[in-house]
User: What shape does this take?
Amino acid sequence: MSHCQNLPVFDNGPAILAEIAALREGMNKRLDNVTHRIDALGARVDALGADMDRMNTVNLAERYNAMAKVENNWANSRNSTLVPLRTIVTNAPIPNFPPTSAALRSLNDATATAILEALGLSTNGSVEDKQARLRVASGIAFAIE
Assistant: This one.
């Protein structure tokens, strides 16, 4: 042992241990930073997934509504049954959707507004404007007058 006194392991042992501890602390900080960044990336991926789910729901509702609009265009009287449209938020049938063209033309302002909102359409204007917008959205704008 007397011959090893000048070797760094024996002479500077505490300094070497302190340096190793400092390196470990730096590595832990970097690892924490990487972990936080991975967590943030995971949150962004989750948000992207939710956005894609919403877009898919809107797409499905719009595809359904396009077909319903075509079917409704075949209505040949004010009392012909309409295919109800779906809300773009959930792709569920719109509550209180008028069963006929005549019922659509007699909607009150609140119901017309709620249906337009469910379709993502403008709610501006008078109740007559809203009814006209709903006739277009339903595919019966010119089919039955």
